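Suppose a colleague, Dr. K., hands you the sequence of a protein chain of 243 amino acids and asks what its three-dimensional shape might be. Before reaching for any lab equipment, you can write down a predicted structure in C-alpha cell form. Begin with the sequence itself:
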Amino acid sequence: MQLSLQDTDDWSHIQAWFIIPVPKTSVQSIVPFPLLTPPFSDKSLFPTGFPANSHPVVVATGYQNDIRMFNLQIKALFSGNIYVPYTDRLRDGKTPFQYPVRNYIGGVDGQDLMGVVPSLVGTFEGTTIYLATFAPNNDAYAPIASNPNEFTAQVKQVIVPNPISGPSVTPEAFDFDFVTARQPLYTPRTFHAMINQVQILNNGLCQRNPYYFNETFAGETLRSGNVTLYGPTAGSVPSQLAG
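The predicted structure, expressed as C-alpha cells, is then:
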C-alpha cells in the first residue's frame, strides 16, 4: 500500500511510502530493540486489519527539489528508505520509534555522485546513508509504457560508480509497481502515524522529520501494488526482508 504526497510551495517534494507486512520474527531479528504491537484494532489506522503474526515495514522513495544543507544548496536529490515503525527504543512498552534499516540517496539525470556529500553529512550526523541510482531519474515514479495508470520506481545501490565509461556495480535494493487503489487497505492517518514517529540514529540520539498532510496542495493519493526487496548485497536489504 502506498501514499504519494506532493508539496508545491516554494520547494517540491514528491514522496511515495509503502507499508508491507513482514513476519514479526524476521523483523525482530534485525531490530536491536523490542517491537511494539501496533494498534491493529484501531479502524482509523487499520480499517481492514493486518496479517496475523506480521509487523509493518515502511519502504519509501522520493524526489526532493532545492535541497539546502548548511551553506550547501543542491538542485535536486532522490531518497530511498526502509524502516521499521513501532520500535520500543525506550523499552517502556508504549512509545513508538522508527528503526532505520537502510537509507539511500542519489542525484538526478544520471548524476549519482551528487549524493556523495549529503550521504557523508547524513552519516556523520547519525543516519547511515548509501549512494544509489534511481529509475526514473527525473521523478519519484513514472507510468509504464503499456499502461499510463500503472507506475514503477526502482532503487539500486551504487557500490562501484563509473560515471565516465561504465559499467558500474549497482545491485538492486528495491522496486515498486503500483496503481491507484480501489479499496485502500490503510488511510492517510495510518501513514501520518508511522512516518512521523521519532527516528533512532546510530549515534545514540534521535530525531523527528515531521510531515504534514493538511496543506492545500498536498495531493495525497492512496495506491496499491507490489514491493520487491533485494538482498543480501553489502549495504543492501537484509536477507530477512528480501523477497
